[in-house]
Amino acid sequence: MSEKPSARSGQLPRRIVQLYVGLALYGASSALLVRAGLGLEPWNVLHQGLAELTGLTIGVVSIVVGAAVLLMWIPLRQRPGLGTVSNVFVVGLAMDATLALVPDAHALAIRIPMLVGGIVLNGAATGLYISARFGPGPRDGLMTGLHQMTGRSIRLMRTAVEIAVVAVGFLLGGTVGIGTVAYALAIGPLAQLFLRVFATPAAGGGSTVVAGAQPKGAILRR
């Protein structure tokens, strides 16, 4: 019995590192998709469209939208964690930092590998930050909150929300393309793979925890 508290405390540094490395890599992967110019993940289609409209950077827009979505948790009675609040800021900052370092790509021979690398990196980043178990991202919490409020399935809520944000983002000038489709098809299997790779031991020191047993753990995105 005396070994369990130390085991739990020993997990905490690893989990914190996983959280922030995962969020930073998520922002970097999103920036690679922007530079590839072949289509973005759903929420970043909206972020890019709003960035075109407002003149703000896409990372700053991501932070503003994330904060606005987090406020929507209040009537939905969702509880944020460290990972939820960190997600709002770290992803946007990492995205802008990566965009400042990575130049525009014009040749398809560069853009296609950049797209593929961005999607794979996004899956790895998702596995890192979700398996750290510090709470869902603000957009995931919105979907689970709508699920609880309406009684509709998480899959339906996720699909409805993401179709809406893609449509609005596209109308505002966000990039929708083959990369958007490729991301939608690949992110689920990739995230599930990396959730298992980066799974952390459960608090009791027994089996590992991937993303939780409840359906809400299967959202797999911010």
Automatic annotation (TrEMBL):
Q: Does the keyword Membrane apply?
A: yes
The protein's UniProt keywords, in alphabetical order, are: Membrane, Transmembrane, Transmembrane helix
Q: Which domain of life is it from?
A: Bacteria
| InterPro entries, A to Z | YczE/YyaS-like
Record field: transmembrane = 20-38, 50-74, 81-102, 108-130, 163-187
* Record's keyword annotation contains Membrane: yes
PANTHER family on file: INTEGRAL MEMBRANE PROTEIN, INTEGRAL MEMBRANE PROTEIN-RELATED
Question: What is the protein's name according to its record?
Answer: Membrane protein YczE
What organism does the record attribute this protein to?
Streptomyces solicavernae
